[in-house]
Write a structure and sequence with these properties.
alpha/beta, 12 helices, elongated, 29% helix, 5-stranded mixed β-sheet
């Protein structure tokens, strides 16, 4: 029971790194000796010390000796040189005698090697405590490090009758303040935010993160097959301050130059019948180090993303309102004719944000 309590503390600490450590994983570590915590830490920012070294640092600063202690760590300690030295090296040198690991690292550079190395030095290693919870911490990292493709979350807000706008086209605001704050937390935690050009034309959004504690704004990605994004739109006017990518099939050199002059990065991609090729876009974003993308588009982009099978999760915000009529729905396109061909969702969580219901789902392909 005590082991579970200490690992839960490590998970709590790991979550503090959300939005700051990408494309690294979130990791927490707790050092325990004689029934009390003598040091703890988490991976705070990409390029800085990992959780284990921060916990050992905390231990030393408090005047505690880790020799003979147990360290609880949510993810297998690394055993390779990256931005920082291997954490296995620090654990071995510290005299820690037991390591409890939540889940093994899927990174081929580690993948069981860290646990094996610690065992070879006579340290007792246990793997799998609260494994599901620890693995869920790093869904983004696990997909990206395994496939080099971003983890994609689609988010949309709709009324109780499934509408995303009124009959006149009004869409601000369907949900309340608490739900909108939840969206900004998503923007903080994920590396990129993607919309279609129609959203830019209709709403002229900033697509930034307005949380005070945010590490960075997400990279803005505009899907715009024909380069219709207005040069005086908010995303273009602030492209020098916030990284902005326009994915397009338009190779008009003069047009492209106007956007590049304002700080936009133009990504020329093949065009499909439903728009640019989103699968190739994900490959290109992955090459740029973008490990995760939040889709906040309209029904057209949402349909294309699901049709392309790039979406991992869908977060549905449902407001207790009814618009009626035949206005826009969250997913448009041609739709399916055969009910057995419906895209299946696996609900993984529900929560309330004020009066709005948030349903989180994994997409089942």
């Amino acid at each position: 029971m005590e082991d579970i309590i200490y690992m839960q503390r490590a998970i709590f600490l790991a979550k503090k790194g959300a939005g700051f450590v990408n494309p690294n994983p979130m990791v927490g570590a707790v050092i325990v000796k004689d029934g009390r915590i003598i040091g703890e830490g988490y991976h705070k920012k990409y390029g800085q010390l990992h959780a284990e070294r921060n916990a050992l640092k905390d231990c030393k600063e408090k005047g505690n000796c880790p020799k003979g202690a147990t360290i609880y760590v949510t993810l297998e300690p690394c055993c390779h040189h990256g931005k920082t030295p291997p954490c296995t090296e620090a654990i071995i040198e510290s005299g820690i005698s037991r390591v409890v690991i939540g889940t093994l690292d899927v990174n081929p550079l580690v993948a069981g090697k860290g646990a094996k190395l610690l065992s070879e030095y006579g340290i007792k290693v246990e793997v799998g405590l609260l494994e599901k919870e620890c693995r869920n911490l790093n869904k983004v990292f696990n997909k990206y490090v395994s496939t080099k493709l971003p983890y994609v979350v689609m988010k949309y807000a709709m009324t109780a009758d499934g509408k995303i706008a009124t009959a006149s086209g009004e869409s601000r605001w369907i949900t309340g303040e608490a739900a909108r704050e939840n969206v900004h937390k998503l923007r903080k935690n994920l590396s990129g935010i993607m919309v279609g050009v129609n959203t830019v034309l209709a709403d002229n959004p900033m697509l930034n993160c307005r949380l005070e504690e945010s590490a960075n704004n997400p990279v803005r990605i505009i899907c715009d097959s024909y380069l219709r994004t207005p040069l005086d739109s908010n995303v273009v006017k602030t492209a020098g301050e916030i990284d902005t990518i326009i994915a397009t099939a338009c190779d008009d050199a003069k047009k492209v130059a106007e956007y590049e002059k304002r700080g936009c990065k133009i990504l020329l991609l093949p065009k499909k019948e439903s728009g640019i090729d989103l699968k190739i876009l994900m490959l290109e974003l992955g090459k740029m180090g973008i490990d995760s993308v939040l889709i906040e588009g309209g029904g057209t982009l949402n349909y294309s993303a699901l049709e392309s099978k790039i979406v991992d999760e869908i977060h549905i915000h449902v407001a207790p309102k009814i618009f009626g009529g035949s206005s826009k729905s969250p997913v448009e396109g041609t739709g399916i004719a055969d009910i057995t061909k419906a895209i299946r969702l696996n609900p993984i969580g529900t929560s309330w944000a004020g009066e709005d219901l948030i349903i989180e789902n994994e997409v089942v392909y």
